[in-house]
Structure formats: structure tokens, C-alpha cells
Amino acid sequence: MADVVSKEVRSRMMSGIRGKDTKPELIVRKALHRAGFRFRLHDSKLPGKPDLVLSKYKVAIFVHGCFWHGHDCHLFRLPSTRTEFWQKKIASNVERDRLVTNALVNSGWRIATVWECALKGKARLAGDMVVQHLISWLRSGEPELEVRGEAI
Q1: Tens-of-pLDDT digits for all 152 residues of the chain?
Q2: How far apart are CA 49 and CA 107, in angstroms?
């Protein structure tokens, strides 16, 4: 099936998709900062350049978009055009996430993953639940945390 927009329009649309400073990431950053936590952003010294790094706690936090990271939630739907391309693209993202997580865990880092569906959509968590999960996990010493939307 041919694309419904011109190459120029598609290029402009795709260039608007951000890799850093996404809305879900900004929500998490502002809430943690308001709660008194200080962090570095996108530390290139660490595998995968985590979205937030809290060195004091030896914690790396990733805020993942459900589509781009192949999350099994209501926000992920494989496109009906160029299906093979998208399957390969998303599978490589998921594999890279797995390798990055393993590298960080093996070097003593704690990992938190906050999924987009926890912050938006019909399954989002109420109020400041995402931040409350993160704060209690930061203080707990547990090795990993995954914050996702509620089951529908």
C-alpha cells in the first residue's frame, strides 16, 4: 500500500518524534525533582544513555514509549503497512533494551523502567502513583522496577 502523504510530509512528521525530553520523561523528571531527588540526564558514560541517572542511589531510570519498545499494552499496535519493517525495528529495540539492562545490572546498577502507559491513556495510574512507586523503590534497595499502566 502506498503512503498517504508525500515523502516531504512523512519526513517532517518523523523528525517531530523525539528521542529525548518526551512528555512522559518530563513528567517523571519534574515529579522526582519536586520530591527532592537530583539526577543527571542521558549519561553517555553508561550503556544505553539512561533517561535519568541517580548516582547517589546507583540507579538508572528509563522512560519508554510503548510503541517504540514493543510493550504489551493497549498503546502498542503494529502498523498494518510495512509490517515486516516495523517488526524488525521494534524487535531490535527490545533486544537492545535487554542488552543494556544486562550490562547495567552486571556493573551494579539498579534499573527502573517507566512505561508510557503508566502516564497516559485509559490504563494510566492515578495521580502521583508513578512517582510514589519510584520513590519507595529508590529507598528500598530492590534491584529492578517496572511501572506500567493498570491491566484493562
Answers
A1: 566 767 677 666 665 566 677 888 999 999 999 999 999 999 999 999 999 999 999 999 999 999 999 999 988 888 888 899 999 999 999 999 999 999 999 999 999 999 999 999 898 998 789 999 999 999 998 999 999 998 76
A2: 14
Cell numbers 540526564 correspond to what residue? 41
How far apart, in whole angstroms, are the C-alpha atoms of residue 36 and residue 91? 36
Q: Check: CB of residue 105 under 8 Å from CB of residue 143.
A: yes
Contacts of 29 (CB under 8 A, 6+ apart): 39, 41, 51, 52
